[in-house]
């Protein structure tokens, strides 16, 4: 069989597997690499070269740096600034101020997404926006989809805003073109983001559903004992002034001051140094209060003094039948001494005002446990781990250093002093040396399926070129688009890319379309640069289906249906298409 026919067969198989999801994308990608080698389309060295490509290494470094920003509290601090007082936790506000707060946060999502991946940005802001919808009374369905779309809009502004931009830039030299500049796409990306946000502010709310779910997610309420430390801003404040409830969703059940116990303290109660507050809240509220308000767990403090031999993690565990803790208090069982772990909080269906250390453990109790990873493995079958909440517990003391490393790497790359991959890998190496993140957590933060997919599609792109298939398809497209003129050809490339990116991943669609678009430009006598830019923009702006990773994150929480994305995303897709067709030829002329 001739090479061109083989390439078309592989392309058809890819479209089927990507659209049906019979296999995960990384498994499909590995099968593709194997097929390229076994068929002789590429040598093993050529087929595997993508794993060492600068684009793949840049993506890996970005995943790690994004995790460092989350773990150090940089993203949480930024969210706090954007949300303003009371924005982090659910409460109640007027309709007008609530809508303004949502719009401000969506603008912030777009800004953050210019330097972090769309998926990571959506994941970080999702619980914030969910809580905000409860606080303002805005239906969750009118908040979640705009969150995903705002993150996608921000990705079109910089080279690192989305992995698709990096993939396109990395493949351009193979087509004889210069890589994309760090802010080159901003000429189109900024107008798209502004217009897109206006659409999300004023048009999308009229189209978004307000569908109720059959079962809302229940927030697990924990009871925890936290002590007011000397540096706490709460010292001398009344409970009303502290805004523990409105800003953090914390309910003060009991206050213990020396030998004195105050049950259900009033709003006028004044907090003093050394008070131990029995608080009820979800895990996010408890961790946020510890981080920002100088509230400490004495159990965790004692554990830290004993020395930690491995990475500290935070997990939710449920007490299983047969556990030796059942019927005993944590103090009686000498839990901390026996396991080398600290229980920060306990969740139980019935409300209680007992001291955490005095509660007798029952089957089904959920414990929030912190400690070294090696010790957590020693809990055994008597505890079932429900979730790993380590990322909810940032180390704020490392935030300035983490931000400095990340911004420094971006400045070096944006000014052209060093290549982007060099700047990012150097930042990761320094972060590991300074222990901003452990090697184990760095490896866990990498989205390996994305890297495998990109490496495989780079190999397929090379086979698409070398076999002559790209030239053949480009010739057919050129003949079809030639009567439409330069702008018509550009529009055809945009629409074809948008169509292709629905069943395929954005990166895969871009790598299939890029050589075709460049070939069409060459055949028609146009500059290939605007066609390459158009492919990057069209592949990134995927609003029509929930198959884009950011959209998949909000699909469940927003109670959406597939048609909701077509209805709301259709208008946004049309808007981005029109603006792209107006701006691209002005910035990158079709003819030199």
SSE topology sketch:
Elements: H1 3-20, H2 25-38, H3 44-48, H4 54-71, H5 74-83, H6 95-112, H7 118-136, H8 141-154, H9 163-171, H10 186-202, H11 204-207, E1 222-228, H12 239-242, H13 244-248, E2 251-257, E3 260-263, E4 276-281, H14 283-293, E5 295-296, H15 298-305, E6 312-319, H16 335-339, E7 342-347, E8 366-372, H17 373-376, E9 383-388, H18 399-414, H19 420-433, H20 439-445, H21 448-466, H22 469-481, H23 485-501, H24 506-524, H25 528-540, H26 549-555, H27 562-587
Helix pairs in contact: 1-2, 2-21, 4-9, 4-18, 4-19, 4-21, 6-7, 6-8, 7-8, 7-26, 8-10, 8-26, 9-24, 10-27, 18-19, 21-24, 22-24, 23-24, 23-25, 24-25, 25-27
Describe the structure.
It is found in: Membrane. It is a single chain. The chain has 592 residues and is an alpha+beta fold. Among the domains are: 56-207, no CATH class; 222-300, Regulator of K+ conductance, C-terminal domain (Alpha-Beta Plaits); 312-392, Alpha-Beta Plaits. It contains 27 helices and nine strands. The chain has a five-stranded antiparallel β-sheet. Strand 2 and strand 3 form a beta hairpin. Helix 18 packs antiparallel against helix 19.
